[in-house]
Amino acid sequence: MHKTSEWLYSFSSNKNQKSSSRSLSVERFKPCTKISVTGGKGGVGKTSIALKTAQELAKAGYRTLLIDCDSNLSNTAIKLGLPLDNKFEKLLSAESPFEEVLIQQGNFHLLPACNGSIELFESKLNFAEIIIDIISSHEHEYDYILLDCPAGVSREALTLNAFCDHRWIIVTPDKSSITDSYSLVKLLQSRFGIKENHLMVNMYQTEKQYQKVVTTLTETIQNFLNSKMHVLGGVKKVEVSAEGFDTFFLSETKSEWHKNFAKLLYGFTEKDGGPTAAQSLGTSLMAHEHDVH
Ligand SMILES: Nc1ncnc2c1ncn2[C@@H]1O[C@H](COP(=O)(O)OP(=O)(O)O)[C@@H](O)[C@H]1O
Ligand SMILES: [Mg+2]
Fold it and tell me: Range with the lowest mean pLDDT among 8-12, 43-47, 93-97, 109-113?
């Protein structure tokens, strides 16, 4: 195994041990949960789902940090309609502290990356190591840290996936997405010993289509890779124009679609989390239900 991976994987296998900073923190119910939103293939909805999840968790009262790991094709700020500034370069060169690069909106914090930075392109920095250092220095400040992963199965992307407590693998019903997800799980298993991941089916149109993706992937991965896929649920394809998509996806409407997304997250946090967490998402979910009926 690569040396860096060994070092990083040791973090992953120690994930249930509390760091000294965590044990000093009296108000915590549980350590920070780190989730990578990933999937191998581009355009399957990783960034949209990572953003939506981070915002929903923040709304529910969790201190949430989203780190854009698509280092030089950062899309998170774009989707939020924020100006792009490549400030992340300054964090890499240690000219700016983390707090100066961070975008803060209440409980929701975003660390955007760069867009076409020549300095970043030319640099020999190990991006995964940098992100892991950032997480290690700041995880005590957050309940959740989400990574919006780039497409592909580069060593850096896999390393970041392996470092996290959970990997949410975003899959769409098309064959290439299903195949790429299988390849990702295979590499995570064989190179990092990861045997559990979560599956989220995005952009499905019918229940039958959703079930087919779930069955195909869970069974194949169980049978051939001896790995477990926990099914998070599905996010239906929304019929809005490309221009209107981000606004719809990230809005706070009480539509059936948004209610379903909140339910899916509640299902996860309930299993994962501390009492405050589940309660607050539950409260926001009940508020949705109250409005709908
Ligand atoms: N649930 C969905 N319904 C309809 N279109 C979607 C959905 N999720 C994603 N998309 C479309 O896919 C595009 C790419 O999404 P994005 O989150 O940037 O993917 P990735 O980060 O995996 O490349 C979005 O801009 C949107 O047009
Ligand atoms: Mg993306």
Answer: 8-12
pLDDT score, position 272: 82
pTM score, two decimals? 0.87
* 286 occurs within a structural domain: no
Q: Is residue 112 part of a domain?
A: yes
For helices 46-59 and 275-292, the axis angle rounded to 10 degrees is: 100
Q: Tell me the ligand closest to 239's alpha carbon.
A: 1
Mean pLDDT lowest for which of 4-18, 75-89, 218-232?
4-18
Please tell me the residue having the least CA distance from ligand 1 atom 2. 237
User: Within 10 A of 1 (CB to CB), how many other CB atoms are there?
Assistant: 9
- pLDDT bin (cut points 50, 70, 90) of residue 29 is low
CATH number of the domain within which 38 lies: 3.40.50.300
Which residue owns the Cα nearest ligand 1 atom 8? 45
> Would 261 be classed as within a structural domain?
no
Query: Encoding tokens for residue 181?
Result: 């997800």
Tell me which ligand sits closest to the C-alpha of residue 68.
Answer: 2
| Ligand 1 pocket, Cβ-based, cut-off 6 angstroms | 42-48, 75, 151, 202-203, 235, 237-238, 242, 245
